[in-house]
């Protein structure tokens, strides 16, 4: 029975090691365990994008973007076609090139419009690129407070959330030296959310969460999680893409999932979301994360079994060392010899 138990334990340990190796080789989100990092997760996302973005898919989407005059979408689709080596009809390519060439001058004009009035800006990417540099300064917060004060003075209904965020931004700026710069993340988040609210780039769930955070006793602490996720998206994707991605978040938990996606997709975050859609992108990330958890559990099981085997081996060695050796015989006792007279 002991031999059968030991053989069963050995077979189970070897099988577990084999399954763990297979899981690690098939699931890139477990790559940190083998020093491959998020690059493999990004590769999985790029494979999914390549499978979805067929020539027919690209031609249909590019035509629609040109008809809608969406230059940012046209640029993204042209970059995708170039990176994948997808052939485009000559007339469609010429039309896209002409739209992008003219678009450079139009972008400068649109940027001026965005700086004057965020609500008149033709795209959220331009809102972030053109208005955030000014809004991040103390002058942007002061202008927001003056705007809401003027609304209140004329008998209108001021936006209390924007006023609260502007006040928080000024307070975070003032405390920069005291906090050694750590308050700048809160300042950036407050400004981004304030601009997103004016540009109608917040979902109802994000608006409710923002309202609760702005009116809480410690708004900076309440916004810390959102601030970290916004900083991650802005660093991994880009600042112009921050507001379009923020618009997709249904609530802070959804924003956290989008931030994790941006850590894997990096500069291609918008491309992944455009081609796969938010639901499929996050579903793929969830499958990868579940596979990573399974891999970690298997590795923990293997380590536990190795520790158990090692402990059993040490115990057996100690028992053998302390067990009396039957080969070693004690010398016979001396017999007394009687001497007679």
Automatic annotation (TrEMBL):
<protein>
    <submittedName>
        <fullName>Uncharacterized protein</fullName>
    </submittedName>
</protein>
<keyword id="KW-0472">Membrane</keyword>
<keyword id="KW-0812">Transmembrane</keyword>
<keyword id="KW-1133">Transmembrane helix</keyword>
<feature type="transmembrane region" description="Helical">
    <location>
        <begin position="291"/>
        <end position="314"/>
    </location>
</feature>
């Amino acid at each position: 029975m002991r031999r059968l138990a030991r053989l069963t334990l050995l077979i189970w340990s070897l099988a577990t090691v084999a399954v763990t190796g297979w899981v690690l080789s098939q699931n890139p989100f477990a790559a940190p365990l083998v020093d491959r990092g998020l690059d493999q997760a990004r590769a999985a996302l790029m494979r999914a994008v390549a499978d979805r973005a067929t020539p027919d898919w690209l031609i249909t989407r590019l035509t629609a973007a040109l008809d809608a005059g969406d230059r940012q979408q046209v640029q993204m689709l042209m970059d995708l076609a170039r990176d994948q080596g997808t052939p485009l009809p000559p007339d469609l390519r010429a039309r896209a090139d002409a739209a992008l060439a003219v678009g450079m001058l139009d972008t400068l004009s649109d940027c001026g419009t965005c700086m004057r009035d965020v609500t008149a800006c033709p795209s959220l990417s331009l809102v972030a690129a053109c208005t955030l540099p000014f809004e991040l300064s103390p002058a942007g917060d002061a202008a927001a407070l003056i705007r809401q004060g003027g609304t209140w003075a004329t008998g209108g209904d001021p936006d209390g959330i924007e006023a609260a965020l502007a006040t928080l931004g000024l307070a975070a700026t003032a405390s920069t030296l005291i906090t050694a710069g750590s308050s700048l993340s809160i300042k950036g988040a407050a400004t981004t959310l304030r601009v997103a609210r004016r540009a109608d780039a917040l979902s109802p769930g994000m608006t409710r969460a923002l309202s609760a955070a702005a009116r809480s006793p410690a708004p900076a602490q309440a916004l810390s999680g959102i601030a970290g996720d916004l900083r991650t998206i802005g660093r991994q994707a880009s600042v112009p893409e921050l507001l379009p991605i923020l618009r997709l978040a249904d609530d802070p938990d959804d924003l956290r999932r989008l931030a994790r996606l941006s850590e894997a997709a990096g500069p291609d975050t918008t491309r992944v979301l455009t081609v796969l859609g938010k639901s499929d992108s996050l579903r793929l990330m969830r499958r990868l994360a579940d596979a990573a958890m399974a891999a970690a559990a298997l590795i923990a099981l293997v380590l536990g079994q190795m520790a158990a085997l090692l402990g059993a081996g040490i115990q057996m060695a100690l028992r053998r060392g302390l067990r009396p050796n039957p080969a070693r015989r004690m010398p016979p006792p001396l017999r007394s010899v009687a001497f007679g007279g």
